[in-house]
Specification:
The complex is a heterotrimer of chains A (about 290), B (about 270) and C (about 280).
Chain A lengths: L1 H20 L1 H7 L2 H4 L3 E2 L4 E2 L2 H32 L2 H16 L2 H28 L14 H26 L2 H9 L4 H12 L1 H17 L2 H6 L17 H8 L6 H36 L3
Antiparallel strand pairs in A: 1-2
Chain B lengths: L16 E12 L2 E12 L3 E5 L6 H8 L9 E9 L2 E2 L7 H7 E4 L11 H11 L6 H14 L3 H4 L12 H13 L5 E5 L7 H14 L4 E5 L3 H7 L2 E7 L5 E8 H6 L4 H7 L5
Parallel strand pairs in B: 3-8, 3-9, 6-7, 7-8
Antiparallel strand pairs in B: 1-2, 1-4, 4-5, 9-10
Helix pairs in contact in B: 3-4, 3-6, 4-6, 6-7
Chain C lengths: L8 H37 L4 H5 L13 H31 L3 H16 L2 H13 L7 H25 L3 H9 L4 H29 L26 H9 L4 H35 L1
The chains are: A mainly alpha (about 290), B alpha/beta (about 270), C mainly alpha (about 280).
Chain lengths: ~290, ~270, ~280
């Protein structure tokens, strides 16, 4: 009982501490903090917009790539792969989830970023350069690199949950579809995946939550420049990486408070995102119970 | 002897054979489930497969449209002739075959994310028979009428299939199978999950369907077999739980003059 | 005639293409892990030698040195966090499993969900405001506290599931022997649930062992031997981060070496968790 109360106190205290710590910034800048793009410790002007931009864009790239690859991989592992292939691949993908983010970051910085800068980015600039997204100078580190690295980090979340959800779809539905003369592929895409739809969306939102809050790996490859740019090659900054980089160097109390408010924003975003993921999964589980 | 169970339908004399199973055996992994089952099914007749649970009647039914082999590690051998051509021959495609031999399952299994109408047209739409919405809605109405469900759902065709009662869901599944326009309809204990009233409706529907289709039904309910079928087969598992055909004859004869003592034991309630 | 009837080629090829594309995605995800692991092993192997494992970091520009203080720091910080998270996590899980109905229990479960989705850096900020700001200096203990909070949701959830998984008959059997309620829990239920609890604990340890972000402003890092959790402390993953973003080749080499150590530790913990799980399910 005492332990339970302690647990409750910790979680509630966490939120209150963040509000308390960011009070000075909250009262100084008001809601304008969110859409101001000033970030100048010298003049004590702070705004969150560039960091929200960097966080949202890098996570958006990550979730688009990761949900396509993750769902496809899950479909293959659950519906098509024979056990002697599905088992080791599932195991490897689950291990991928256990790799520490600093190792991802290290690999992203020294392997992924140079590879992208040398071959992938120039190719994109060459073929799709008429779009603002793929124009501008190539640095290697930047939004695209961070997005792809984050994608790799959250693929296991999407793939593992989706695979379990697909395996949980009752076999009767597959048989019904097959008995109508549908192929295995048609059955999977028209019947099985739609039946697990809500849960799969939940898995993707959950993975999105991870991408939004990821710190170290993003910090190592995003370039850490508080700028809003249309180009995905450009360096950017995320909420969590600015906290990671500047917190120990912040001198004025307003500076620290502004960084804590960024943490508070991150807290609120992740509660909303994770809450909706739970709701999606919950609605699915409830519907699955027999009448 | 005189059977206690009244038989309703006399077997039609003559009649052309639509579907013919010739020494069909089936395995789950290394385990043999049924051995050398042979049976002929006549056009526009209803044949009931009876037997205690574990006798392989469902497995045999599932071999008739090659759905048995859709599960991992399963296998079947023998021949099943549909209009004289073996559906297990090298050139035959199971997916095409299944369009001509429809199936209704033990528990109603409408597709949960689709509306009533989309359930009915799932077969024609997704297997590429037609994608024209007008044509599809015609097919749907026809199939729903044929399954005696149209009047009950005509005002809520877009409602989710899960909103129907169990009996209605099962008739929806029948309509869904009919929409592909099969020649043969396989029914695997289609009323075992339903209440008596819904069961009655489905049984009446079966009689009606036999005018156009050839129906094969698995049932563990002797009364049902006697009520609906013209032909009946009795299957039994041996001590290794390998199922085999014991007796196959017009329903009337099975229930009044069974040739095999094991059949007699079963229908008089001394077995299973 | 049916024997001649073939599936429309379009449908056949679509199915084939689908299997190929989804199979490629599986191979891509699994393949990238192999590439990543291979790279870490190939790069890290050259950095690992006795002095790397036993010596302190050298000043900038001086080649050589090691991460021994970071390894020790990691063990101390994770150890303290484990000692703190274990009682809170297991007992809260026990509470949920035994009294798991009603508003209070639902609220606690909700909090655990919220906590498990929080970015680790936010939890680091929390530890900072609680244990760094008031004392005016960074400390290993504040890092251990952040790790405790990170471990809790996983520990609570797995403990609850583990204890719930113990059949009621077992608990009633204990009560029938005349044991008091807590006695039954202590001597019968917890031991029966132990393999799963251990699994959850190992996974939680693995999770924080690989964690870096909250350490930046809690443990902070150190160039020296530091076993006192009241002072700033070195930590392996933090050293990897610092070395990786530095401009020195020798530090990059050491970052790979550290990454190899870290990944080995985390994978061993994960595989250990799997083994505990399979041992547990065999006993059931």
């Amino acid at each position: 009982m005492a332990a339970t109360l302690l647990f409750v106190a910790i979680v509630v205290g966490l939120f209150l501490q963040l509000v308390h710590g960011s009070w000075e910034s909250l009262t100084t800048f008001g809601p304008g903090f969110i859409w101001s793009s000033a970030w100048n410790p010298v003049t004590n002007k702070f705004g969150a917009l560039p960091f929200i931009f960097g966080t949202v864009v890098s996570s958006a790239i990550a979730i688009v790539v990761a949900s396509v690859v993750g769902i496809a991989a899950a479909v293959f592992l659950a519906e098509f792969a024979p056990p002697f292939i599905a088992r080791p691949i599932s195991f490897l993908i689950e291990l991928l989830a256990a790799v520490p983010s600093v190792v991802f970051g290290l690999w992203g910085l020294f392997v992924l970023a140079p590879v992208l800068a040398r071959s992938v980015d120039p190719f994109l600039a060459h073929t799709l350069g008429f779009l603002p997204l793929f124009s501008g100078p190539i640095y290697g580190v930047g939004l695209l690199t961070a997005g792809l690295l984050l994608a790799l980090m959250i693929v296991p979340t999407v793939a593992a949950i989706t695979r379990d959800l697909i395996l949980a779809v009752p076999n009767e539905l597959r048989e019904a579809s097959i008995s109508l003369g549908a192929t295995r592929w048609e059955t999977t895409m028209r019947v099985v995946v739609p039946a697990a739809r809500a849960g799969i969306m939940g898995a993707c939102v959950l993975a999105l939550g991870r991408a939004l809050g990821e710190t170290i790996a993003a910090t190592m490859v995003i370039g850490n420049r508080p700028a809003i740019s249309a180009s995905l090659f450009a360096p950017s900054y995320t909420l969590s990486s600015v906290i990671a980089n500047e917190f120990t160097e912040a001198t004025s109390s307003l500076y620290i408070s502004a960084l804590l408010e960024l943490g508070l924003i991150l807290f609120v975003i992740s509660v909303i995102v994770n809450g909706s993921a739970r709701l999606l999964m919950f609605s699915m589980l409830r519907r699955e119970r027999p009448r | 002897m005189q059977a206690a169970i009244p038989v309703k339908n006399a077997a039609p004399a003559g009649g052309e054979v639509v579907l013919s199973a010739r020494s069909v055996s089936a395995w789950y992994g290394p385990k043999l489930a049924i051995r050398d089952v042979s049976m002929d099914f006549k056009r526009n007749s209803i044949t009931a497969l009876m037997g205690p649970s574990g006798c392989g009647k469902t497995t045999f039914l599932r071999c008739l449209n090659r759905i048995h082999e859709s599960a991992l590690g399963t296998r079947a051998s023998g021949e099943v002739l549909l209009d004289g051509a073996d559906i297990y021959s090298r050139g035959a495609d199971p997916i095409v075959t299944r369009r001509r031999i429809g199936m209704v399952f033990q528990r109603p299994n409408p597709f949960p994310t689709m509306s009533i109408i989309n359930n009915v047209v799932a077969g024609p739409r997704y297997t590429g028979i037609t994608r024209d919405p007008l044509e599809l809605s015609e097919i749907a109405e026809q199939a729903l009428r044929r399954a005696a469900l149209f009047d009950e759902v005509k005002d809520k065709l877009k409602a989710p299939a899960a909103s129907l009662s169990g009996g209605q869901q099962q008739r929806l599944c029948i309509a869904r199978a009919l929409a592909v326009k099969p020649e043969v309809l396989l029914m695997d204990e289609p009323t075992s999950a339903l209440d008596p009233l819904s069961t009655l409706k489905i049984e009446e529907l079966m009689q009606d369907l036999a005018v156009d289709f050839t129906v094969v039904i698995v049932t563990h309910n002797l009364q049902q077999a006697a009520r609906v079928s013209q032909f009946a087969a009795f299957m039994l598992g041996d001590e290794d739980r390998v199922g085999a055909l014991v007796e196959f004859a017009p329903t009337e004869r099975i229930f009044t003059h069974p040739q095999d003592p094991r059949t007699e034991d079963y229908i008089t309630g001394r077995l299973g | 005639m049916i024997a001649g009837a073939r599936l429309e080629p379009g449908r056949r090829y679509r199915g084939l293409a689908g299997v190929l594309v989804t199979g490629f995605c599986s191979a891509l995800a699994a393949g990238l892990l192999i590439v990543l692991l291979g790279y870490v092993i190939a790069q890290g192997w050259t950095a690992i030698n006795p002095s790397f494992l036993t010596q302190l970091p050298r000043p900038v520009g001086v080649t050589g040195g090691g991460v021994a203080n970071g390894i020790v720091g990691s063990v101390i910080i994770v150890g303290i966090a484990t000692l703190m998270a274990m009682p809170i996590g297991i007992l809260t899980g026990l509470y949920l499993a035994v009294y798991g109905r009603g508003f209070a229990a639902e609220f606690i479960r909700f909090l655990a969900e919220v906590l498990s989705g929080l970015p680790s850096i936010a939890i680091g900020l929390f530890a900072y405001t609680l244990f760094v700001q008031p004392f005016g200096h960074f400390s290993g203990f504040s890092a251990a506290f952040a790790f405790t909070v990170l471990m809790l949701p996983l520990m609570v959830r797995t403990s609850e599931e583990a204890i719930r998984g113990v059949p009621i008959a077992v608990r009633e059997g204990a009560l029938a022997l005349g044991l008091p309620d807590y006695g039954g829990v202590l001597h019968v239920v917890l031991p029966a649930a132990r393999p799963l609890i251990v699994t959850g604990l190992l996974l939680a340890i693995a999770r924080v062992t690989g964690e870096t972000a909250p350490l930046l402003f809690t443990a902070f890092g150190s160039q020296f031997w530091e076993a006192n959790p009241g002072a700033p402390m070195a930590e392996l993953s933090l050293q990897i981060f610092t070395y990786a973003i530095s401009p020195y080749d020798d530090w990059h080499r050491q970052a790979w070496g550290g990454a190899l150590l870290l990944i080995a530790a985390v994978l061993v913990l994960n595989i250990g968790a799997r083994l505990a799980l399979s041992r547990g399910s065999k006993r059931r």
